[in-house]
Amino acid sequence: MLRAAALIEKQGIPTASIISSGFVQQAGVVKKGLGIPLQVGVYPGAPMVDSEDVLRKKVQEELAPQVLRALTADPRAEEASESDPAPGEIVFTGTFDEIQEHFHQKLWSDGLPIVPPTRERVQAFLEFTDRDPDEVLRALPPEGREASITSIAVNGVMAGCRPEYMPLLVAAVEAMCDPRFRIEDAGSTPGWEPLVIVSGPIAAELAMNCGQSVMRVGRQANSSIGRFVRLYLRNVCGYRIPPGAGDKGSIAMSFNVALAENESYTHEIGWPTYAQDRGFQADENVVTVMSVVTISPPTYSAGDRAEDHVAQWADVMGQAFRYWCHTGFKRGVWHALIVAGPSIAQVIARDWSKDDVRRYLHAHMHVTAERATHYAKMTSTPTFDLKRLVSEGILPQQYAASDDPDRAVPMIIDPSMIDILVAGDPGRNQSRGYMSNHIQGPPTSRRVELPKQWKLMAGRRR
Fold first, then answer.
1. What is the DSSP letter of 164?
2. Environment class of residue 209 by beta-carbon count within 10 Å: exposed (0-12), middle (13-18) or buried (19+)?
């Protein structure tokens, strides 16, 4: 809302943005990043839990007078805020413990000990990229800081990454800088977390785990790359939790470790890899970043037919996805990622292609129109209506096939929105599903640019 107001204000038209009191601090962060003195009217509390009488009273007595003052007031300059250190500036000198405390007090850490980003350590990271250290990929919301190559190296050091991970870190930030990723929504109330998916030979070169406990903290590459993304969103974008602001995740989630696919096994069973599904070649190194708002339970399945396992996915993962799919309906898109255990994938691949799996899941994962409407109204969309979404061209015609509130509609809007990746314990029959947050954080991929001297650096990577 504030970003839209900024565009209007630039045309010389005064605005007053209406926000609830729980978003006041986050609004201050956004206003700082936009650099425009925007006016707001504050609704006290959460309107979704107020009765109609209470809502009307608050609007008349508290919100409306604020909006009127905001629209008629002279623009006010924002209070001066503490400026950020200049690139390359030494911000502190002290012992290891003193550095930890300084970074903690400045809100530059994620609450865990960080590796001090000394010039020597940062330079070691920069040697693993041919990009100019001063290159800026984009100014990132909400606080408007520049995503520079040096800033990636600094946060990579702090997150406990090794210098040779630098090409992956750059690719991950490039993916998040893509406007389609909508990084400006990374602090929204659902509290979704980015998931980094690494594809190509580099995953094995960097000893990334793709097998047993693949999503568990414990392997340096998987863990530190995942931590880096959350630290970067915090330090560069400004998505900080209290006593900071910017991150409005109501309860939120913790960071995901980076996920690597068991590509050799995927080739062995005759399926294309995740990166190939996304249009890349089998020998290309690729980083994909996507939002994750819901994770299914561990989904066990048994049987020697493809349908035995995929039907179980539709049932168990469908239950996990059902509640939140209405958010995708409102925008016409959301993405599901199925992480298939190797033993499960092997059985399925004997009978079905990945597209066969996608078509089955699309046909068998359903929600009733009544439940989707109910969930939407409970969240924040009292005007949710499937027929209207069809008439506006957002949803396919089948979502308005009848007026029966108990009619079943596909939970996944199109089979192409289902991704399948093979990873996990090959000795167990478990899979898991991951759901994105509608248009926020769709799977966004970038090729990994290795430095020209990558092969000569092999000894330094061991």
1. G
2. buried
Torsion over CA: 157, 159, 164, 169 (sign): negative
For residue 300, which amino acid is it? Y
Find out whether 25 and 107 touch, Cβ atoms under 8 Å. no
Query: In this predicted model, what pLDDT tens digit does every residue of 101-157 receive, in sequence order?
Result: 999 999 999 999 999 999 999 999 999 999 999 999 999 999 999 999 999 999 999
Residue pLDDT, tens place only, 169-194: 999 999 999 999 999 999 999 999 99
The residues spanned by each domain of the chain are: 2-72, 96-289+442-462, 294-435
Q: Rounded to whole angstroms, what are the CA distances from 457 to 129, 164, 361, 460, 462?
A: 12, 9, 45, 5, 9
Token pair of 150 as six digits = 């040096």
CA distance 226 to 289: 10
Q: What is the H or E stretch that residue 277 is in? A: helix 274-277
Alpha-carbon gap, residue 15 to 405, rounded angstroms: 40
Specify whether the CB–CB gap between 123 and 154 falls below 8 A. Answer: no
Strand positions, DSSP E, 380-437: 408-410, 418-422, 430-435
Alpha helices in 352-396 (DSSP H): 354-364, 369-379, 386-391
